[in-house]
Amino acid sequence: MTFGSRIKALREDSDMTQTQVAELIPMNQSNYSKIERDQQEPDLMQLKRIAEIFGVSADYLLGITTDEAAAKDALFAKKIINLYKDMY
Known about the structure:
Elements: H1 3-13, H2 18-24, H3 29-36, H4 44-54, H5 58-61, H6 67-87
């Protein structure tokens, strides 16, 4: 699985459009689309932001860790967010 296909799957699983993700990075939708199609690589700050948006590690996005590890990271991040929300 390529970097682009990983972020596309994460985006679709999150029910987000390319425009919504691009706005959160921030970057324009056209360049984000190129990243999903593996025609352009994100810079380090964009990579960090993409990982934050989807609650996965940069290692997962880069194909260093497995899907299982990324899922655990995302689940942990969601639990922390929910705990924080419950505090307020």
